[in-house]
Amino acid sequence: MLQLKDFYFLRHGETDWNKEHRGMGQKDIPLNSKGYQQAHSAAAAIVDEPIELICHSPLTRAKVTAEIISNKIQKPIFEIPELIECSWGEFEGRVKGQWTEDWIAGVDIPGAESYDNFLQRALLGINKAISFDQRVLIVAHGGVFWAVQKFAQIGSRFDLGNCKPVYLRAPTVVSNPWGFSSIEIFSL
Fold first, then answer.
1. Which single residue of 28, 51, 78, 97 has CA 20 to 30 Å from 140?
2. How many whole angstroms separate alpha carbon 157 and alpha carbon 171?
């Protein structure tokens, strides 16, 4: 179960593999130049938000995004291993397609973690992040956001864009839906 606590979420900046629609999984693919620009724009957009701590995945694309934001908003960062993207085993680097939907439906991929196991691990990482007694920004991956969507019951699964900050408001009653809003980003 997702802890009932408000938090911010941001998917890392763009990589070349994002542009090519490749499944990165746990391959440590760096940000491209657009990804760096996106991280700076996201930092400017959230500079006035009441964020006190930034928790991030150990993969470089998320860590560097978190560092750029930390430098702008002057808040500490903390790495949480469970926020790492899903492992797609032998399919990492392949262009996304039907195999992605098959994996979500439960088809095994050699060397990959199952979709359900991934969601449970991501939930553990999200709960670790929001258990701090501070207002938290999680900088992670699109797959980790799938876990947010599932456990916050936001609705049908969709892909969150690179560096699109969102704010999630916890309900006061477990059976009520979470609030979800985007934070506007303006080009610098």
1. 97
2. 20
Task: For residues 163 and 18, give the distance between their C-alpha atoms in angstroms, rounded to a whole number.
Answer: 12
Element (H, E) at 99: helix 98-104
| Average confidence (pLDDT) over 151-169 | 91
- Mind listing the pLDDT tens digit for each residue in 33-56? 999 999 999 999 999 999 999 999
Q: With CA atoms as reference, report the closest residue to 67 among 94, 104, 35.
A: 35
DSSP string, 76-96: -EEE-GGGSPPPBGGGTTSBP
Place of tokens 């657009």: 34
Q: What is the pTM of this model?
A: 0.95
Q: Domain residues of the chain, as ranges? A: 7-182
7-182 maps to which CATH number?
Answer: 3.40.50.1240
Tokens encoding 42: 């996201």
The answer to whether 22 and 99 are in contact (CB under 8 A) is no
In whole angstroms, what is the distance from residue 112 CA to residue 150 CA?
20
